[in-house]
Amino acid sequence: MSAFSYEKKTQLDGALGRTGAITTPHGVIQTPAFIPVGTKATVKAVLPESMGELGAQALLANAYHLYLQPGPEIVDEAGGVGKFMNWSGPTFTDSGGFQVLSLGVGFKKVIAMNEDTFRDDEVIAEGKDRLAHVDDDGVTFKSHLDGSMHRFTPEISIGIQHQLGADIMFAFDECTTLHNTRGYQQKSLERTRLWAKRCLVEHGRLTELRSDKPYQALFGVLQGAQYEDLRRKAAKDLSGLDEDGITFDGFGLGGALDKEKLGTIVSWLCEELPDNKPRHLLGIGEPDDLFVGVENGADTFDCVAPSRQARTSAVFTPDGRVNLTNAKYQRQFSPIDEACDCYTCKHYTAAYLNHLFKAKEMLASTLATIHNERFIVRLVDQMRESINSGDFYDLKKDFLGRFYSAKS
Ligand SMILES: [Zn+2]
Q: Which residues contact 263 (CB under 8 A, 6 or more apart)?
């Protein structure tokens, strides 16, 4: 029944990084890979065909948002999230754990996210009351859409994700912040472990009940904030769980991650995790963080940043992020990046994008998003190729040296 597997290929010299392939009922993902986010079953402003053309191997949608709108039963009746949004490749859904806990509280999924990448649909302004209440059984929260009250438990989250029908789902966990005390982290980690067991049981039940549907893999989510013993414990606990033969198919590396300690924390987790299962680093998409994640053993990544930033006219170039509304682009009758092979750079000039953004034309978001998603997808593809060819550390040094050097 398990049409899901992970095969490791090449190990990175002297580190935990690796290349491999994740096989799902909807196709194979060559890893490491960047998975673009379509929160509400759409990568904002871009056709799924364009996402395929720019090299996206899979897309990630969010269970919290699709639960509130249009409702998981609609997506189920449509044949699952992939079919609903006309994306034939593999899909992921986030459990909603992060969203129900973070809305209104002003905290970030990972501290590695820059300030400009966390706002609107993930975090409401700081200083507002927390809209969620956690207890040992689940989380009660207020909808950010209409203020109505809802409740997620491990069973409810897994039920929703089975209805959404993605190839890869995540266990429901409590996402803490770096501001929580050590004592709270410890208590919360135990709660997340017990929730993980309940997720596996419900996952097993629904997999059997819905055996006519394609197999959906379930990843356990590892918390533990900045504490080495808690992180290692989380990895050991969740990779050792076995509920009547039902085990996690892979792992999500999540929770509060201090940017400076990102690599260290990922390495603690990956040292404890089994080699034969994939690892997804949740919510990471900055170039330097991607290098650190790949080097330390993460296989897949997702982040809203490339598309969100694109819609605000911030685009990636090999020389760093630039803003297309800058006056210097008004007469740049050449692409954003001469070396970029994306549809936007092949057909349009920076001057045209500068005009579209200033005129507030919708096409600006479409073209800039295609470029940014292609830039990040291709960067992680290059990391994969460089591990296979033995040039990872050269690529890292060359890319980061240029990308983060002083801008003109
Ligand atoms: Zn481009």
A: 292, 293, 295, 296
- pLDDT band at 407; cut points 50, 70, 90: low
Cα-to-centroid distance, 345 and ligand 1 (Å): 4
Condensed to tens digits (0 to 9), the pLDDT of residues 239-252 reads 999 999 999 999 99
Q: What is the whole-number distance in angstroms between the Cα of residue 156 and the centre of ligand 1? A: 41
Q: Please state, in angstroms and as integers, the Cα–Cα distance from residue 114 to each residue in 111, 258, 287, following that order.
A: 7, 11, 12
Task: Write out the residues surrounding ion ligand 1, Cβ under 5 A.
Answer: 340, 342, 344-345, 371
Q: pLDDT tens digits for 169-193?
A: 999 999 887 778 899 899 999 999 9
What is the 31 CA–ligand 1 centroid distance (Å)?
A: 22
With a cut of 60, say whether residue 111 has pLDDT above it. Answer: no
| DSSP-based three-state secondary structure for 59 | strand
Average pLDDT over residues 306-315: 98
Residue 246 per-residue DSSP state? B
CA of 32 to the centre of ligand 1 (A): 21
SS3 87: coil
Average pLDDT, the chain: 91
Catalytic residue among 76, 94, 249, 299: 94
**Residue of 173, 299, 302, 337 with catalytic role:** 302
- Is 302 catalytic? The answer is yes
